[in-house]
Amino acid sequence: MTAILDRRIHAFRPDLAARALTGQVEAARFADPQPMRIVAASAPVRREPRPDAALDTEALAGELVEVYEREEGWAWAQLARDGYVGYIPDDALRPDQPAPTHRVAGLRTFVYPGPSIKLPPLTALSLGANVAVVESKGDFAVLADGGHVFAAHLAPLDQPEPDFVGVAERFVGVPYLWGGKTSLGLDCSGLTQLSLAVAGISAPRDSDMMEATLGRPVELREDLSGLQRGDLIFWKGHVGILTAPDTLLHASGHVMSVYREPLHEARDRIRAKSFGEITAIKRLG
């Protein structure tokens, strides 16, 4: 009997599936993954192999990806970090890349061709992107691919941020982008997942998965009392972070940016105009 699995986080199609799912799904053939890493600053993960297809999420530089098929400029792949499955531009991927040693700790940082801020940047990396540092040159960290990043903008991977809420607050003012996960644009669950990841806390990509798996439930009272900084507030299809017991931070399509607002005002507006009632409040730790 074929299992019912979530296509967002299980690699299977009618014609192809991950070999690990043999016996769980029906497919014409099964394949082992080829490990690769994202070498672009970021890469879209799309629902179909077309540049105009829906953006489901983004992968950041240095992320490990398990590739099951490469065809006509697209790789059908699964992100190792959160298991998300989709189509990634093939030119954003490379095999046999060195394991990252550091992550970008600033909201955004430039990569230069040499150890000088006067050189034209090669690209820019967003907070949470991973890089492999091979040596230091003055104020710069030299990357395995030859790029140079201002060293103070990096942090070792084994030193997570102490406060995921503080990380999320850095994104205030960043535009809302459905499926986005960078400082150029991100959505509600992208903001939450990325902020948690930088603080060393693994989380699934979408808000319904977060609600089902993260933290412990907190009693939902009509007056919204008893809440604290760091609580996650869930609606059907939306998630926000409390920066204070009465203040919500979220990436919102209402204003098309990451912003703070009084929790009561957000609750009442969302209840009346969009996602309906709060479905859960979860507390980590």
Automatic annotation (TrEMBL):
Keywords annotated in UniProt: Hydrolase, Protease, Thiol protease
The keyword Hydrolase is assigned to this record: yes
Superkingdom as given in the UniProt entry: Bacteria
GO MF entries: hydrolase activity
Keyword Cytoplasm assigned: no
Alphabetical list of PROSITE patterns matching this protein: NLPC_P60
Domain NlpC/P60: from-to ranges: 158-282
Pfam family name, one: NLPC_P60
PANTHER family linked: MUREIN DD-ENDOPEPTIDASE MEPH-RELATED
Family the UniProt entry places it in: Belongs to the peptidase C40 family.
UniProt name for this protein: Cell wall-associated hydrolase, NlpC family
Species in which this protein is naturally found: Bosea robiniae
